[in-house]
Amino acid sequence: KYDVNILSLGRLNGLAYPLCHKVKIHSLNMKKHSTSQYKGFIKILWLLIALKNVLKFYNKEHQPSVWNITSPPLIVLFSLIKKSKNFFLYCEHTSPLGKHNNFIKNKIRSLILNTGDKTISLNKKDDAYYKSINVDSKLIYNGCKRPENLNLSKDKNIIFVGRFSYEKNPLEALDIFYKSEIWKSGYKLKFFGDGIYIKDIILVSQNMKIENYVEIISSEKDPSKIYENAAALIMTSHYEGLPMVLIESISRGLPCLSYNCPQGPAEIIIDGVNGFLIENQNKNDFIKKLSSLDYEKLSREKITSTFYKFDISNVIKDWKKMFENYF
Predict the structure, then answer these.
(1) pTM, entire model
(2) Measured distance CA(3)–CA(11) in Å, rounded
(3) Where are the beta strands (DSSP E) in the chain?
(4) Which of 40, 54, 158, 238 has its CA 20 to 30 A from that of 149?
(5) Angle at alpha carbon of residue 145, lines to 141 and 148, rounded to 5°
(6) What does the mean pLDDT of the chain come to?
(7) Are 19 and 25 contacting, i.e. CB atoms less than 8 angstroms apart?
(8) If residue 268 lies in a helix (H) or strand (E), which one and from where to where?
(9) Cα three-residue angle 155-160-162, rounded to 5 degrees
């Protein structure tokens, strides 16, 4: 019953996921759409240009609407916009606890977030943090739809799914795979994604002489094809919010091995049931867990049974309650 629109700052070069025909997509067509692509004064200039473009779109919307803002740069932009009859929901997407916070930063974050009506937290620790700095927060998990037909077969494939960036730490995954020596038993490590470390992954795997056991797949967007026939998923991130790749994995009965990084994995992985939660950045323990192949003994049916609180049919109930407060 809701009229749903998605606004993107950047140019749209195809979508990662199929969308319902009722959802309308709009693009501001900015060549560079992220503050991470700029430094210093140029970053401030980018924010001003982005604000001008956003205002053009915003002022066209005459009906009262709920605006769900999903990244820190956009939250800063919308904190400068007059709300009128609109309602603003903010969500930082990546945990604020993965950053270096201090009294001044907490005050600034509190001032900015309190220009909105509510901040959406993706995990319990973020929710507690926001409330500790006097921000009105509501915990709503990321969710996904459970596949109707589960393929519980598996090949000797370990998968890494995500951006090849510092945050996701893909070279750590490659080193763990190499030192586990499971490639000597025919296992392969498949990287699904793209990013600045793609050439490093290729070069390092060649130096390790395991290039025949490492594959990079950047073009595949279909989750059913990404996760099918895998033996396990590994995640080596420095920090997260609530990682969708873990949720998508357990929805398909796929065991996950992940560092207990801030934040999110600890709320998804039940150690020894749907995967293994490894002490943050304890590489030796990760290597031991991967090489022991204990994940092969985990029940695929038990793994999927831990998915219920991330099932989209449950998550959407929280969003509907949220919208009912404003309409």
Answers:
(1) 0.85
(2) 22
(3) 5-10, 24-30, 66-69, 87-90, 118-121, 137-139, 157-161, 188-192, 214-217, 232-235, 256-259, 275-278
(4) 158
(5) 155
(6) 91
(7) yes
(8) helix 265-268
(9) 140
